[in-house]
Input
Amino acid sequence: MYMMAKHLHLTAVVLSILLFVLRFIWAQMDPTALQRKWVKIVPHIIDTVLLGSAIWLCVLIAQYPLVTGWLTFKLLGLIAYIVLGVIALKKAKTAPMRWGSFVLALVVLGLTAKVALTKQPLFF
Output
């Protein structure tokens, strides 16, 4: 069960990141591509699978955010990634703001991945 949950989670992580990057590229080159129905629906499905598999993994390993430091960091990283992604894709009014938010979102993802691999929180 653990390996199945982990593989599902990692697959959803990769798909979420790839789709975020693709949507950002489209936002820069062809904003009309973001209006396609599947582009509005699929990210929500992937992110729901990502969150569901994360909860499943927490239950399987009996470790939880706000109790375990590295999972708390991952939760905060997820929230920061979402906020930065929304800014990069929708809210930023200028190109430097869009690019800055995009790059910061990727940095947050990198830090979160490092914590996931090492199981050591960076700031706790």
In short: The mean pLDDT is 94. Residues 66-124 form one domain.
